[in-house]
Fold each of these.
Amino acid sequence: LTRKTQTFMQIHKDRSVNGVPVPPEQLQDMAERFNFVSTSSHSHLIKLEFWEIKYRLMAFLVLAEAKLKSWIIKYGRRDSVELLLQSYLSFVEGHRFFDQYEIIFTALKQAAEVYVKSDSSIDEAEGVSKFLTETTAQWKNLALEVRSVRSMLEEVICNWEKYSSTVASLQAWLEDAEQMLNKSESTKRDFFRNLSHWIQQHMDMNDAGNFLIETCDETVSRDLKQQLLLLNGRWRELFVKVKHYARADEVDKLRQDYQDGINTLKMFMDATNEKMTAPIQVSFLNVRAFVQDVEEIKHKVPAMEAASKAASRTAQLLTKDTPQEEISQMMTVMASIKEQLSKVRERCLPLLRESQSLLPPLEEMERNITGFYQALEKASRITSTTDSEGPVDFKQKCQELATFTHSCKKCLTVIERNHQTIQKVMSTSKTLQHMDMSLLQKRVADLQTSSQNMIKESTEWRKHVEANSSLMKRFDESRVELEKVLKMAQSCLTERGNPEELLKKHTEFFGQLDQRILNSFLKACDELTDILPEQEQQSLQETVRKLHKHWKVGLNYLTVSRKPCMSLSTKPAPQ
């Protein structure tokens, strides 16, 4: 259109075409017509686009309906139905049938919206709206029918498969069954024991056959009717002669169901009696496990009662085909089980309530037993050490020992209180007679003994450490006094001056020296050696030898130094 516009503008300008003049009236007419085309071309294009998508959608729906008609037919045999299903899947899934509709319809709605806006005609807008509404309704019905085609085809194939398999198996069984009629009674009873299975097979064959007769074409339906007529005739003729064996099979199944139910109930009762009456040593873990067992039994009782009722109904059904003696035995068994179940239900609640009441005190006992032994272990670490302690360490360890001892006493008090609570429950209980308190009593007695031993060991440890500290203190005091004297003696011996004055001074000092200082030190050393471990005795002995040596050296030096001084004092005075 743009190119045409440029050409016309050139003609209008030149007033001629290829040099041939164009009358003004003709040019004016062409201009008016060209202007009309130019202004209306856009709306025409919008309208044409709407119509194109509209007819494309209509063609899609026509094709879909044609396909639907080709699928909704009277069917043939299985292979032809499978071909129809393949054709359906190829068209619907292979060509994305439903997705294609959504794409086209979405494009149509968008084009319709633009078209209605560009055309101010109310009639045209109403026509477009009506078409969209009708198309939506048409598609809804069409889509529903198309989707149902697949399930229908699959159901037809399934019935063909069921019909073919049951016909084949039933024909083979009928051949064997007809020959079995001439056998002995025991052989026939054994062969027709599963007659109920073939009754069900016969019903399945007829159900599938009747479905196929209704859905298949006339030729196939006629063949199916003929085949069913022949097989049902053979079946009726045989069934009249052997139908009484079906009851025998039914009775066998009832007997098996009854026996299975009784076995289940007996197993439950045996397990329940074992759990409820087996001896149990009273402890938190054992009682908690027992409570869980009783809760499980309580939850199973309703199901077992239902199983008992089912077994009773089965027993009633067997009365017509069971000897009177066996019936009496069955009734006795059922009455016994019913009575046992009633007793279990009666026992569960009080047994559960009383055993649950033991759990809080037992749990608190276990917690405090753990705390007791933890404190006892820490106290034992202190009392097992007999080394001499300094005043500060001794005081701190005494405080720690007192804390641990108090913890043990506190835990033991809680344990004994809970033990009494448990004893009270056990003495008044009528349902917990199978629970044994001996192990718990032994544990409490062991705790009491351990507590008494700890108190005794703590007292002995304190006395021993105090005695050791006293010996250490006496040794330290005597050592300090001895070292002080030796230091003074050493100072005297190293002093320089007038020999006579020094002699006099030394004689005076050593004359006052008390041998008891050394004796006191040696005695304290001997006493301390008795309590010290071997690895520390050597160091003590070295200290003693060193100080003793210093004492002897001082005395020897005094004796030697006095002789020269005496010889000097006896010499004549110089002239």
Amino acid sequence: MGNIKRIFALIITLFVISAFSRSTFSEQLKHKRQNKDNGLFTPYIPLEPTPNPITRSYEVELSQINLAPDGFTKTIFAINGQYPGTVIHANKGDRIQVTVKNNIGEPSVIHWHGMFQRGTNWYDGVSGQTQCPIPNGSSFVYDFSTQEQRGTFWYHAHTHGQYMEGIRAPLIIHDPNDPYRKDYDFEYIITMSDWYHQRVSDMLAIRMSPNYGGRNPIPDSGLISGAGRYNCSAAPPGSECRENNPLAEYKVTPGKKYRLRLINTSGLSHFMFSIDNHPLKIIEADGEYSKPVIVNKLPVAIGQRYSVIIDANQKVDNYWMRATIDDRCLLINNQTVNFDSAINYNVTGILKYDGAGLGYPTSTEYPDQLEPCLSIDPNLLKTLEPQQIPGPATNKIQLVVTFRDDDQNVTRAFINNSSFVVDDNNPTLEKFVSDDVPLDQFPANQNIYAYDQLGGTIDIAYINNNSAIHPIHMHGHNFYVLGTGSGIVVDESKLNLVDPFPRDTFVVNSTSWSVFRYKADNPGVWSIHCHIEWHVEMGMIAQLIELPTELSKVTIPESVSNLCKQQDNSNSKRSKFSRRNRLFNTDMKRIKV
């Protein structure tokens, strides 16, 4: 009888284990089905080269759906019914045509983060600066060439915090002449993002309300490639929340090497990325090849991208993939929206070797030796090929950032004592090019800085005179990071004029300065702003009007101008000025030509 009981107990135990394994496997399959269409969890090889550049067409539908990336079901803004959205692939030199169908219930735009848009400034996708938004129920075609660009990019909404609701996805420009192609077998894309359960528009209304005493709203979770795990015990009563939501899982084959394209698509959070037992060999940052640099942990600020190569040369097992949110960057008090968030800052996924078991990893994290909240040391990265650094500077622009309450007791960000206010239905490009509005007739709150010497060298001294840390992103260019330092006075002895690395996003520390340099060769209206989306909405934006004489000669496509005609014109009548009066002796305190 005792043997029979033991056998029966063994059968029950095996049944429970089998059921658990089937349940876990079922959840993994469900997770893969949810993400199958965006291709993030499938290894791929670069696009085949073509004899000549071709046009690659995509359709992107923006809509509202219910989704639970971290287990908590909420209504999100989705791209083609998924999050993250559809990955766009092209080769260097190809033309990209994307038809955007807007069905989210409000106007929207799409910005192509990191793309220079040479000759197509009107497709940069910034509401109130380069275009009017796409009305709900309408479609719009973005049509631009990748030209000589290659690397890792992304696209996202650029109006009223919408990308934090889900309108964000990778954009990959492959290089048929990739100098590192022989160093890896396959590629993966890995996105890192923070995630909010409340509607961003509701939180934004609170953040921008008079006498709000808190800081930027705290996320509820962090996601790796759209997958995370929320503590459902903290969910409000009546919520739909699935415990132990499946984690992101990337499979590798022993002996193979993988190029991982890392993208921080967050609205607030700075990530530190690592994979236990697997050093990261950096080969690209923000679309620029670098000489190989090996690190164990890599800081990835909002808007930044890296390509790293890993070698699947460890024993067959599961290893933790870590995208840790650096909570040292988060300023918080008990008046902050969601200050008591149940967020787990230690966001994880799994690197799974072929042949490894189903269990969770038991690997050990690398020690943390990173400076809190900053970019990788700018002097650590060097361009793969020597580059001619422009200079000396023909124009110097100083942008001093402060935060304070305005006359309505709303906390705003100020650049040189002016807080940007978006005018969605009267974009700068249309007013300047089509409506002949001289630059000195723009309101001061448009934060316009102009320079007009073709081929000139521009130095921007970005002075952060507040306690927050800001990932600064510039449209239309990569800039050379000449130097950075503490205090609010630039120390020119610290500038690297020999071999600085070019980026389009760089973190400016609290109470510190950074100097960016680039060549004036891309006429347009280019935004430079903090990529913390809450700070964007608080007015931390300047507009760089590059080469206005050349810009005044362009013809904006009718499809772009028609977007403005579709908007409510009751408050958007724009005065007309003659073209001959457009260029002028400017107020040098605000605008520099």
Amino acid sequence: MGLGGGVEETKTGDEEEKPFYLNDYTIIKEGEAEILMHTKNQVFYNKTQVNNRDMSIAVLRTFISKRKEEHEALLSKRIKKVSKVSEDRASGSEPPTDSSKPNGKSNGECEEIPNNEACDTCEEPEKLQAGKGHGELKPPRVLEALSASGLRALRYACEVEGIGQVVALDNDKASVEACRRNIKFNGSVATAKVESNLADARVYMLTHPKEFDMVDLDPYGSPSVFLDSAVQSIADGGMLMCTATDMAVLCGGNGEVCYSKYGSYPLKAKYCHEMALRVLLACIESHANRYKRYIVPVLSVQMDFYVRVFVRIYTSAGAMKNTPLKLSYVYQCTGCDSFHLQALGRTVSKNTSVRYLPGFGPAVPQECSDCGKKYNMGGPIWSAPIHDQDWVTSILSDVKSMKERYPAFDRISAVLTTISEELPDVPLFVSLHSLCATLKCTSPSAVVFRSAVINAGYRISGTHVNPLGLKSDAPMDVIWDIMRCWVKKYPVKAQPPEHSGSVILAKEPVLQANFARAVASLSKAQAKKVARFLPNPERHWGPKLRAGRTITSKHASLLGPETVNGILNNNEEQGEEPEAKQ
């Protein structure tokens, strides 16, 4: 499409769109997609979210690959079963009838299978081998529930091989018009694969149960109102990609609001961003459980000003019973950095039976055993692993092999590299600088502290959430013993006796720390000096103004003074007056 100053008229289906002047639009290119953006902030677009979109494309590519592998493995298993049944029938030995079954059916007969699964022994080998019926894997259908300009949906359609139909929804008429305009602008591939609908995402997902293999939720703010319908619209084994940008709420700024939206109470601590991820996962699991479904996280990321989780959703009433084992309450000391987790549930096994029981508690006394102060209690949070390391490795290798196709390659590869080295089974983390601030002592280097933990017989790693964060399976009393030994080597000034640091240092260490450098004190990425935490590529790299709001001088902190002045000057030249806030 040429960029003249003339009038263009576009049609989508039978619906005619209003004519538009190309001079009123700016072409924005990201990846292999291009969109037309109006100068008046009519439709939301944030350049910062290129990290989010690139990460989503990387995960979607791996999802399609894994989905195909899983299907081939299932198909191979079914063919083997069918072949065995055919051989038994050919040899004249019929499978024995199990008289203990209430319906009296034999193993070779077809029974009603729950969850719409196929009966393995009733498939014909010819059909399976020919790729018909259950042997055929359809391309995954994708739903972008809150599409705005449609850039994300267009990038999925243009850049991800093997993808099926992409449905882009929005409840704003201007956004749908912009999305349809951008679909046509991107040519035949986008026109064939992407469709844009004006609809309430919640209603649409509720009326299309288990129809989509992947649902993408990226709202302006909290996703909580969309989660109930989203978990119902995903097919078994499908994936939910969900973003939350209300970090002030999730990180403990408004605990009561977080509880009303997500069903968990957050804590203000150094690990608050990781806790935000775990609060969101616990909320999604809660919504899924209402429909006998459960989640399996494959990747959970905190970047820029938001958290984003990638979870697969399955249906199983039996597996759903394990949910209390994956949730925990958090006790955070108000005087020092000590925190403790208390599991919501536990199991007791006897022979082949498993009983589900409430978790033992309380996990801590009324006062902190380290400094004597009270505890704050938060949660429940998701305390099971938040990443699948096999997936993370696959995603990272895919990203590195196609680096030229990711505009934000440097950032997402750095984040994925750090995630690949995290301890997957250790919830939350401690901050080395925060430990030293409590004791008013000089900080040991991360290598020295890591070595002491490793020499004590425990594991330790970094975290992608905080450059200063350290995950370890060492209990808090071991952490404080190491710090006591450090202070013995490098004494501190005396503090008031009631100070938390004074109470901690008044106790003699039970463990004698060994600060000799350990072999594993540096991760592979650190040893190779791979960049893991990158600065923002430009100023004002963060959240942007909600679509439809009139841009004024007070928005300089979000958009930058140059951008705001340029827009205001342009409005003055056109003789436009600022509109009142809707």
Amino acid sequence: MATMESLIGLVNKIQRACTVLGDHGGEGLSLWEALPTVAVVGGQSSGKSSVLESVVGRDFLPRGSGIVTRRPLVLQLHKIDGQSEYAEFLHAPKKRFTDFEAVRKEIADETDRITGKTKAISNVPIHLSIYSPNVVNLTLIDLPGLTKVAVEGQQESIVEDIEMMVRSYVEKASCIILAISPANQDIATSDAIKLAREVDPTGERTFAVLTKLDIMDKGTNALDVLEGRAYKLQHPWVGIVNRSQADINKQVNMIAARQKEREYFESSPEYGHLAHKMGSEYLAKLLSQHLEVVIRQRIPSIIALINKTIDELNAELDRIGRPIGVDGGAQLYTILEMCRAFDRIFREHLDGGRPGGSRIYGVFDHQLPAALKKLPLDRHLSQNNVRKVISEADGYQPHLIAPEQGYRRLIDGSLGYFKGPAEASVDAVHFILKELVRKSIAETEELKRFPSLQSDIAAAANDALERFRDESRKTVLRLVEMESSYLTVEFFRKLQMEPEKNANANPAGPNADRYTDNHLRRIGSNVTAYINMVCDSLKNTIPKAVVYCQVLEAKRALLNRFYAQVGRKEKEQLGKMLDEDPSLMAKREAIAKRLDLYKSARDEIDSVAWK
């Protein structure tokens, strides 16, 4: 089995790593909260600070009247070999303190940094690690002293605020409660015992300490409490003799104070038989032994939590993307993979796997027919305009059989109106394709980490769509122009075979009004019939051309030029394209560090706990 020191030391190490990475709060149970800690609870002036200093063997905590501890102090003790002793603060990680008077000042200054030079409190903890050969591996949390009334300069809510803060620590199932009570006060009025009883009614997590035994009234003692008759707990009471104010003033060091404490209990007629179970050294060993038991009991649940968190962190890394290689080949592969992912989603929009592609069909089924219906053909083929065009087409020469040039001009003029709807269809599909590019980029999870690559792909895709639109516009205009360049002769041959309804409709001699109204109506009707035939044809051919030139080309070759350009880029240029959002990079780095922490914790717990 692992030694007690190695197991508790490992927990300390993991807790410190959790603290550095900020993994000690938030939603759900963090690894920090799953690991056992000791919370020091007591009323103001109960001797909490003296107990902590006795356990550490160093004089390092701020002193004074009223509320001295105004922020939680997370104190991690690390037992080391050798004779050197030093301290480190989380907020000053690169600074090592060997002067513990400077540690005291730093705690005071760091407290004031958050709370100001007032009597206010803050739940933002100060994290302090002390490395010494004279300590046991232990994590202690010094909390503000419980109080019953607010004094001048404090908010009225200070009593409730302190209690809520203390409860937020001691209510956790992993927290061991070190309840500090002074021997010169009635134990029934102890704030620490009262609170411990509320949050830990069975007493499984509570260790009680009785301080100031040496300043009790003459003729009295605390045997009823220490021997468990006044208030029985599952764990034994421990008596502590604090340094006197005279010792503090004389700067008696803690090693000498421990010796003086041992001598007090050993020579005491009341407590001599309990001397082996009294004092700060015994308290530290007792807490360490209990911590080992608790840690071993909680190892299965801790490992389960670690495995669950590792799975969650891996899933989150997969979601935001794992780190990419630094060589050019890996960068090029990553870019191409991102492009393929985008292209796949873009195709899904067109093919119906995602919404949006159906809007293209709407252009052909609704927008184009509606635009063709609105063409001003009635005005162009009105009787007056037909007369004007027919007359101007023949000039001074009368036509001999039929006004062929007039027919052609009327048809050409009518077909010219079709260019507008044809181009509008091209532009409408172009707009839809651009919108689908934008949506596809936004929906490509793999691309979200690369804003520069997103911009590059969007620019390349839109450039390609512009080229496709230009080709499509040329094609649909050619379709219209082809209808003008060569008329369907069979249509007019059929018209000539129909008997003339009005024999006088085509007079032989020219005059100021060359054609009768019936003949003009006949011409307008013939041209309208021909234009309607062409219109029905263009309703089918314009969509075919647009789909072929724009939609199919977008599916087939949207990023072809981009692929060729990327393949010619140097490593440095590829790296710039993969320039990630700094916040996302920071998030991935934080997740990777947490993942390493949890994997390391799991491996180390396995290696140490089951030796």
